[in-house]
Amino acid sequence: MVDSKLIIYKNSDGNIIVDAIYKDETLWLSQKGMSKVFNVGVPAISKHLKNIFAENELDKNSVVSKMEITAEDGKRYNTDVYSLDAIIAVGYRINSKKATNFRIWATKVLKEYMTKGFALNDERFIKGNKYDYKYSEYDEKYYGTDQENEEYDFTAPENEHAFCQRNVYHYAEDYNGNNIGRFKVARGRYMWMPDEDFRLFLRSIYECSEELLNRIDEETGRVHDSEYKIIYQAELAYLLAQQFTATSDTLGNILTSIDDAANVFYVGAMLEMLPESGFIKAGMKLFPAGIKKHRLYLMTRSGKEAGYISFKDDRLYYVLIPILEQKRAMVKIEVSSKQDRHNTMGEKKYKNIDLWVKIGNDATFPENINMRIEDLLNRYRESV
After folding, report:
1. Theoretical Cys-Cys bridge with 346: which of 35, 43, 306, 361, CB 3.0 to 4.6 Å?
2. Domain-wise residue ranges, the chain
3. Cα 126 from Cα 138, distance rounded (Å)
4. What is the CATH number that goes with domain 250-359?
5. What residues pair up with 353 in beta bridges, in sequence order?
6. pLDDT band at residue 97, thresholds of 50, 70 and 90?
7. Per residue in 127-146, pLDDT tens?
8. What sign has the CA pseudo-torsion 190, 191, 194, 197?
9. How far apart are CA 66 and CA 24, in angstroms?
10. 157: Cα within 13 Å, side-chain hemisphere
């Protein structure tokens, strides 16, 4: 264990947003700190964390700690803080550019601070989901560069039309069950499967997008501004993720199926309300108003914009939103009768909503997506 350090996180304008805490080889933020980073209210952060723990996406005991934090009044208080795994999980659910920026910044910080040289003796095992590995040595640097075991015969469906190959990662544990990093098990055009942690899947997709952009930078001899590059990287990742996920299969794994034959699913979600949303009550029907920057905005029956949907499972941003953009699904949306007591507090209000989705043709459109990727890369190549 190391002493904690405060690390300043700034926005693109150079303004200090929050002091992140570096301790025990990870970064920590309070709920208030996360609300500043992602520009949402503390109640929304609390709601996302509650869902993350309720769905067993993360073990609360592993990602929450008590630390003394100096408040705005100058006094120090014992406060719950959340590790980087929890911060990123919340960030993906918010699905904002700010979440992407923080993830990239945090990765760079951890690479600088990560302790090197940790080794396991050859009596210990590194375990994946369906297999065991035995290594004589394991270094924590694999948080940045990954070990690949060539003896493992990895099998998964492939999308031969996918624009590029991707790495497949799994978390590594010592034989006491402690997470000590990640390692690469394969590289190819492999589809995402439920036994692959979705956060690691997204990491592999972001790596693909970064590789494609770096290749253009090398070809053109230009170096783009990091903030500008992040915008293209996020858009590329959004398109690439669609090529490695099967809509019906993925939804079937994460949602409640109402009618298997008709491809109808139930989705528990939240309406992130706008200041001008007005009164939204339980049982009220809402309707799609359009998709902007991959967010589904809703309106009331009278046509007044109510806000946008925030999913409780970040996988839905990469599966459900694309099929809505492609007009391959029909939806029915109602404000839920089950609301949280604190969901009308804070800077941003939200309401729990019930969403039913009927999926149409599940055929993929690889050529169309590849054309969009090519167009995006050409725009990046031609940009100054």
Report:
1. 43
2. 5-113, 125-246, 250-359
3. 9
4. 3.30.70
5. 269, 335
6. low
7. 333 223 222 222 233 333 34
8. positive
9. 13
10. 11
Place of tokens 């019930």: 354
For 268, the token pair is: 């528990």
β-partners of residue 357 are 265, 331
Phi, psi values for residue 137, rounded to 5°: -155, 140
| pTM greater than 0.85 (yes/no) | no
Phi, psi of 289 (to 5 degrees): -105, -10
SS3 43: helix
Percent residues over pLDDT 70 in the chain? 72
Nearest to 182 by CA among 226, 214, 149, 144: 144
How far is it, in rounded angstroms, from Cα 299 to Cα 291? 12
SS3 103: helix
Q: How many CA atoms lie within 13 A of 260 on its CB side?
A: 3
Exposed, middle or buried by CB within 10 Å (0-12, 13-18, 19+), for 162?
buried
Q: Average pLDDT of 170-183? A: 65
Structure tokens at 134: 């035995």
Residue type, 349: K
